[in-house]
Write a structure and sequence with these properties.
Length: 166
């Protein structure tokens, strides 16, 4: 993406790899660099795909997507939506943006999903869905759980029948 969009040369992209990786990935990068020497970005990209894009990684990504359900009280719409979009795009690179957005909206819950779809007129981009989702969450109670506010327990004095007569 950086190469295509910004015409950044291979040397700069490969030069930034050591700062992008952390812990185990950084150790792997240094080991590969010592064993194989300098290579261009396409070589590093194919090595990363063979290293990490295996069945266990796909299984992890699939489970992470399936278990992620939007909670308006704890999740920020922008970060949650983009995280789910990245997961689905990694799992299904051939899937269209519209299909990805529809799958993500199903993870929002019935009322919130319906409200977002009702407000967005086709064709909608991911940004449109994010804007509508943020608007719905800030202006309505859709997607929020109702919590009972505890009231102070008040002791109501009981009046006996004898006291009423007098």
């Amino acid at each position: 993406m950086l190469q295509e969009d910004f015409h950044i040369p291979d040397k700069i992209i490969v030069g930034k790899l050591h700062s992008l990786f952390t812990r185990t990935e950084k150790k792997w990068y240094y080991k590969m660099r010592q064993e194989h020497g300098k290579h261009n970005w396409s070589w590093w990209k194919s090595e990363m795909i063979t290293k990490w894009a295996n069945n266990s990684w796909r299984f992890e990504m699939k489970n992470a997507f399936e278990s992620a359900i939007f909670n308006s009280e704890t999740d920020e719409p922008l970060t949650w939506l983009f995280k789910q979009k990245e997961r689905l795009s990694a799992l299904h690179p051939d899937m269209s943006d519209t299909m990805i957005d529809m799958k993500i909206l199903r993870k929002c819950g019935g009322e919130l999903e319906h409200a977002i779809k009702f407000r967005c007129v086709e064709p909608c981009s991911t940004e449109d869905y994010i804007n509508e989702m943020e608007d719905i969450i800030t202006r309505t109670r859709i997607g929020k759980t109702w919590t009972k506010i505890p009231m102070e327990s008040k002791m109501v004095p009981r009046i006996s029948r004898e006291d009423r007569k007098s």
